[in-house]
From TrEMBL:
GO BP: any one term: protein folding
Purpose of the protein: May play a role in protein folding in the endoplasmic reticulum.
Entry protein name: J domain-containing protein
Species, as recorded: Nepenthes gracilis
Pfam family, one: DnaJ
This protein's GO CC annotations: endoplasmic reticulum membrane
Keyword terms of this UniProt record: Chaperone, Endoplasmic reticulum, Glycoprotein, Membrane, Signal, Transmembrane, Transmembrane helix
Transmembrane segments annotated in the record for this chain: 205-232
């Protein structure tokens, strides 16, 4: 016969009641006391706990004592040792003894200690960096191959291949043959061209997150040395800028991406450097000239 509706307890309420009735200490060593199982006091140090455990192991280990009851006792002893040998779990157990009324808190700490993920955070970080680096490299390869395939379909690329073929053959390629290039020859000529596409550079391991992370200390030291040398050379000694440093200042003052700056004609680049655009007045005059030229073209 089922109990009246008023006497029925919902499942969550039953679980809560069980937790309240069962002492939180019992989740560690059951009804026994972990210290009593090992025969030590609560003030025992790690060495005393370890010594007592080995002594009891010799007495109750199944290989030493075939009695079934000793096997059960040894399991309890081993469990008590696992709890007390670790400083964190022992501290939790001592707290549960001192504060048995904090049932939910003690229970939560126990399950977090035993069932939480115990992977070293450093290993997780290294694994994450490796995964991100792998995805980054695959993305670079995909973008580069797609860009190369698109460029190979353009007439300009085919004309460059044809010019290179004529240069290699000394201009002896027949018209009939020149209408359609052999795939093997086309592949060889394509490798010689070494296409450079802005925004889809050839994949390199030096740009990966993992490699940069490993080289971060070296990069920071190099960056600091560079700044110190720069300050000493151009601020203290007031030396004139070298061509490389003047090129860097010009590129930065114009806000031009590095790969775009590298593709600028050398004569145009030299003209820009001679203008000393890193000086504010020179840069403003140059930009004003460019705006005037743009209006004239319109």
């Amino acid at each position: 016969m089922a109990p009246p509706a008023a006497m029925r307890w919902p499942l969550p309420s039953v679980l809560v009641l069980c937790l309240l009735i069962t002492p939180s200490v019992a989740i560690y060593c059951g009804e026994d006391d972990c210290y009593d199982l090992l025969g030590v006091s609560q003030n025992a140090n790690a060495s005393e706990i370890k010594k007592s455990y080995y002594k009891l192991s010799l007495k109750y280990h199944p290989d030493k004592n075939p009695d079934p009851e000793s096997r059960k006792l040894f399991v309890k002893i081993a469990n008590a040792y696992e709890i007390l040998k670790d400083e964190a779990t022992r501290e939790q157990y001592d707290y549960a003894i001192a504060h048995p009324e904090e049932v939910f808190y003690n229970t939560a700490r126990y399950y977090q200690s035993y069932y939480a993920h115990k992977t070293d955070p450093r290993a997780v970080l290294v694994g994450l960096i490796l995964v991100l680096s792998a995805f980054q490299y695959l993305n670079q390869c995909t973008r580069y191959n797609q860009a190369i395939d698109m460029v190979k379909k353009t007439p300009a690329y085919k004309n460059r291949l044809r010019a290179l073929e004529l240069e290699r053959s000394g201009g002896t390629v027949s018209r009939k043959k020149s209408n359609k290039m052999d795939k093997k020859v086309e592949e060889e000529l394509s490798n010689e061209l070494e296409l450079q596409i802005n925004g889809a550079e050839k994949p390199s391991v030096w740009g990966l997150i993992g490699v940069r992370f490993m080289l971060l200390p070296y990069t920071l030291i190099k960056f600091m040395i560079w700044h110190i040398c720069w300050f000493w050379r151009y601020k203290v000694k007031q030396a004139p800028y070298s061509w490389e440093d003047a090129s860097y200042l010009t590129q930065r003052s114009l806000g031009v991406p590095l790969h775009t700056w590298r593709n600028i004609d050398e004569l145009a680049k030299e003209d820009l450097i001679q203008r000393q655009l890193w000086i504010k007045s020179n840069r403003e005059s140059y930009l004003a000239e460019k705006r005037k030229e743009s209006k004239r073209r319109r």
